[in-house]
Design goal:
It is a single chain. The chain has two domains: 196 residues, Spore Coat Polysaccharide Biosynthesis Protein SpsA, Chain A; 121 residues, no CATH class. β2, α2 and β3 form a beta-alpha-beta unit. 39% of the residues are buried. It contains eleven helices and nine strands. It is of the alpha/beta class.
Length: 341
């Protein structure tokens, strides 16, 4: 429970050349009195993060260097482990390096925590309005977990509803005063996820074998499987100041676009297939039917709309290889050519 004034350790992971984003995130965090420490995991950045941080002259920021890009799973594992062992904050708040909170976001999250009874079993997630699936949840007011035997969120039974949604599209952002301020979730992304530090004892650390993508869902799924509750807080906002590859424009389906990042395609598909095989597949026949329908549809759509047919077929081969490895439980860093960070 919150003892006197809440204290927060923020964990964020950065890589590549992303100081332009991270600096804006840190600028907001350093103004919040509840933030007592910010653990920045330098996950193989191509910039001198320590030097940049030293220019901010804040004792709150603690930089941990991995020496190379070990992937988001290992990065957040290292950051959460560091936050837990240093024990400065009663709560841990996870943010991607481009997740800029609104100035009152954290205080609103803590207000919800108090309103829910100061109960450590409750974990909270801030809303990122670029995440269409999160926006849908606060508009609808209830979670829609993947159907058993669904593939990448697709199930043939949902086709009529999806067609209706295309004909009558919903909003793409949430207005202040949304009807459903709290929505229960089964799992959550890292970005905006707030939890009591005692959870680290109960669920451990992220599985670094995921390397990239899906590790956040697997990790937070452990919270609810252990009896925890995750609430999406619609009035607590975090802005994504970079744009996800899923939201970029492609003529083909993002998984089959020759211009989409092959590394992201592979790990995203592989790790999702792994999670589905563990948690969602109750009937191999039904699951296989959804796989065939979905892959067939996205291939047809991509071949019609994309000029580079050969490129589409090349991405299809990579996509199918990723699925096979995921279903077989072959995680870790892929050895495929062209998939190095």
């Amino acid at each position: 429970m919150i003892t006197q004034e809440a204290t927060i350790t923020v964990v964020t992971v950065t890589y590549g050349r992303r100081w332009c984003f991270l600096s804006k995130v840190l600028e907001v965090l350093l103004t919040d009195p509840a933030v007592v420490e910010i653990v920045v995991v330098d996950n193989g950045s191509q910039e001198d993060i320590r030097s940049h941080v030293s220019e901010l002259a804040s004792p709150k920021i603690h930089v941990v260097s991995t020496g190379q890009n070990l992937g988001s799973a290992a990065g957040f594992k290292r950051g959460i482990e560091e936050a837990y062992s240093r024990a400065k904050g009663e709560f841990i708040w996870l943010l991607d390096d481009d997740n800029r909170p609104e100035p009152d976001c954290l205080q609103r999250l803590l207000a919800y925590y108090r309103a829910l009874g100061n109960e450590p079993m409750n974990c909270l997630l801030a809303l990122r309005e670029r995440q269409r699936e999160l926006v849908d949840l606060v508009e609808r007011g209830y979670r829609a977990d993947p159907r058993p035997n669904s593939f990448l969120g697709f199930h043939w039974r949902d086709v009529p509803r999806k067609i209706a949604r295309r004909v009558m599209p919903g909003r793409t952002s949430v207005k202040t005063g949304t009807k459903f301020p709290l929505v229960s979730l089964t799992y959550a992304p890292y970005g905006g996820f707030l939890f009591h530090r005692s959870w680290v004892k109960w669920v451990g650390l992220p599985n670094e074998r995921f390397f990239l993508y899906g590790d956040d869902h697997e990790y937070t799924w452990r919270f609810t499987r252990q009896g925890g509750r995750i609430y999406l807080c619609a009035n607590c906002r975090v802005e994504d100041i970079d744009v996800s590859w899923h939201h970029q424009t492609h003529d083909a389906h993002p998984f089959l676009s020759p211009r989409a990042n092959a590394l992201r395609l592979f790990y995203s598909a592989r790790n999702r297939a792994y999670l589905e095989a563990i948690y969602l597949v109750h009937s191999r026949v039904a699951y296989g039917f959804n796989v065939v329908l979905y892959v067939g549809f996205m291939l047809l759509k991509s071949l019609i709309r994309e000029g580079d047919k050969v490129g589409v077929l090349g991405r299809l081969r990579l996509f199918l290889k990723a699925l096979r490895q995921g279903w077989a439980g072959e995680l870790g860093i892929a050895q495929e050519p062209g998939l190095k960070i």
